[in-house]
Fold these 4 entries.
Entry 1:
Amino acid sequence: VDFSSVYVEGIETITAADIKFAAEFGYRIKLLGTAVRNEQGAIEQRVHPALVAHSAPLASVSGVTNAVSVHGGYVGNVVLTGPGAGEGPTASAVVADIVDIARGIAFPPFILPQSQLKPAEIVEMSDYSGAYYLRLKAADRAGSMAEVTKALAEADVSIERIVQRPDQGRDGEWLPVVLITHETREATMQRALALLSEHADVVSAPVVIRIQGS
């Protein structure tokens, strides 16, 4: 795998408002690293914040705890959790590696010897498909919501749920609009965001978070 092809997105655009809205919709925001092999054998790999359903095992992981969720064809989902930081866990991992080296215990990093590894076909991020959470500031005037939904419709993005919160905006200037989309392709969503950016009724760039498992 060419790690330079991994899509990476940070958490710098997420605010306390997004955490609150996510909770209202039944989600928690988690920074996830995801790798999926599709039916054709190509690999989809990405790192970005995601909305995870409250009922999902990954949603309960917090603090210094890390988790790995593996989905197998016969066993289903298997979740492994454990400390991912701190003096004790870090020292334990380092000492374990030193002991393995002293004993001559060695395993290939990817289980198989390098000679048996083959280049993997990578799925472009534009081909990713899922549901999305969007939060934007719409102008506080009649018709602004219609312009927002029109832009999404023009890009062929279907809205599952939309919430308008006048009490959390700035009276006479803008109000927050939060929506959840139905499943759509990444390329389609990016086209919708480009259309939204052209509208004067959208005061600032929308915050976009993908929904895990959609």
Note: The chain has two domains: 3-116, 125-211.
Entry 2:
Amino acid sequence: MKRLGLGLALILLAVVSLGANGASAASKIKPSPSPKWPPVGFTVKGEIYAKVPTVKELVGIASNSKVITAQLAQKVDGVLICQKYSCGAITVASTNGCLWWEVRSKVIGPKNLEDKTITTFGTIRTTTTGTAKKVYKTILLISSEDIDRGNKISNINVICHHAPATETLKTNVYTPIEN
């Protein structure tokens, strides 16, 4: 098991708002080219490469991924999930490949509208299927924490597992912290 801790934060408002603008905005975006190896602009630790994609990069990734597109299209109370809740994303790859990936992160933001003290609202634990060596995978990190306060996904920790999973994969669990 290899870990990569990233002190990175991301709010994904614009990526889902492009869907609200209709096909004309989306039709101007070209699919991402095939990635090169080793990845440029990624944080590397051991065999793991990781990067928080920009909104533009995520739109390109989503244009090539039915899974990411479906996740971003989910609605809660009639609102796109990442327009309602704090979301993030991480693109990962491994020199040797992984049987499955685990991502742990925190949701942080101002305590409330009056008190701007940064606090941790909860944690997200996301699991997903593996990748072959040198194959990129983008993983969405979705909380159940309202986005209105300006929360961010932070302290992203990526784990590449080489042993078979003993749990259900493709999970995204948000656990609020009592403050």
Note: The chain has one domain: 2-21+36-176.
Entry 3:
Amino acid sequence: MTNFHGHPTRRLVTDYLTLDYLIDAGPRLVRLSLKGSDINLLGEAPDVGWETPGGYYHLLGGHRLWASPEEPGVTYAPDDSGLSVREIPEGVELLWEPKTGEGGLAKFIRIEPETDRAALRFIHRITNRFSYPVTYAPWAITVLPLGGTAYLPCPPAGEDFQPDRALVLWPYVRWNDSRLGLHEAGLTVKAEAAMPPIKIGAFSASGWTAYERDGILLFKCFEPLVGEYSDKGCNVEIYCSDKLLELETLAPAMYMRPGQATEFSEIWEIHTGEAVQEILAEFE
């Protein structure tokens, strides 16, 4: 059994990569490495956290599942305990349930490594454990280390006279932040340590977002679903502070009666060498 800053973990191993996940908290995927490398492609944030209505929330880092819209009492529900792990032939399933009687959203991540390439398939699910209907969306957030560049493709849809794209900024963002890059193909954020933080978002019909650092590209694919989104219509968001960068994807919000659930899937691919330049060529 491996360990992540005091939390016990287990490991999935393929011919191409290794993935560590917590077995006592989360769900949280905390280490991702190419075979033969000890470099963690995910960001580590063991000292980051904050007080919430339900207690102290430990970010920890790695990949997590939240619920949108961002509401402290629900989104930040502390998840240091209450996780169950189920190993399956395809991979592993991680399920966190709120404490009995308190209500909340159950969080589920199914991890399926692909056997013929450096790739992983994820199913994210939130389930309404309140005693009344609620409307939320799965919000998949990946913490990444500083030193690279995040990509949000948002090319023009055509040559019509009607607007077809929008850039969403959070209140603390400065228009002249040097980390923000505007390109014909979309937006980039350099993962440089600076304050105040920067957070941008957009609706991307391209179905992917990515992070490149030291010649390694983490490429996140998803289906750009039609529906009502939080945060002024964003399905991709990028956040960067002086400690970390977050690459975030969202599904449309779903009205859920007690016991109902909504899902959102991603496929992660890890690329190196010429494949990185080919994928990012449209941003040059």
Note: The mean pLDDT is 96.
Entry 4:
Amino acid sequence: MGTIAANIILPLFGIMVVGCAAGYFGVLNRNGSAFLSRFVFVVALPALAFIKLSHVPAGEFFNWPFLGALGGGMLATMAIAFVVARLVFPGSLTAHGMHGLTAMYSSTGYVGLPLILLAFGDQALVPGLIGAVITGTIFLPIAVLLAEIDRGRREGAMSFTPFYRVLSNPVLIATTAGLLCSTFGIDIPKPAAKLFELLGDAYVPCALFSAGLFMSGGIVRTATAEIGWLIAVKLVLHPVIAWWLAYRVFELEGILPAIVVLQAALPCGVPVFVLAQHYNTFTARSNAVIVISTALSVFTLSALLIALKV
């Protein structure tokens, strides 16, 4: 199982290293990270969300105990981290929202799903996808809403502008459209489906390369306490909360409780960095958490797979 975790995680980490090297040796300008990240946020990630979710069986999605354990762990972790950020770490509402998102946002799609499928087989496909769905449809918009409220305060234009900006978020629009296609059985024409698949395939390499390119500017030497706290929350506290909810509160059966815990124990996902760069807030800290938690997760996930006896 340790080899499985390493085989999945190390190539992803390698893309970040290549991006970092490209910036460090001057092959690409570090400022190009912002443009690449913008492409990911506006084009690649929405395309991926739409085409993947349009194929999720709607009837299998609403397993309420599973959703309660998985989503409850995410919500509790985000809430704890947000409160700690407000009390301990100085910053804006946007930064504190990003702090909370960084603490609970798992790299479900490109570390978690392959890992879960290798560990549990095809029967784990839908439960594995659900984690990616609810992080994108519920928790990412929460961070966006906090950022837009913060922006509205600064610009003196509260009204409904923050809510409009959340609803016009390309990732949320694509996610909603994909779920609607799945719910109503709408078939995507093959040429269009192929287009979305090609654009979606660019998400992982571009997002990880962008994170590495940004990292080429140097290692974060400030906010080390905050970064260390977030890594501990993501790799330790989040899975502990998820374990308690899955095994003790909701008493899930079969492979479901192990999937809940495994998804919670994943490293921080790259969409957090993409969103942070979009709002030009918490960028360096989220990037550091992603890089370090990804490297450490080779060992923590290997140990967890052994502990779960899968």
Note: The radius of gyration is 19 Å.
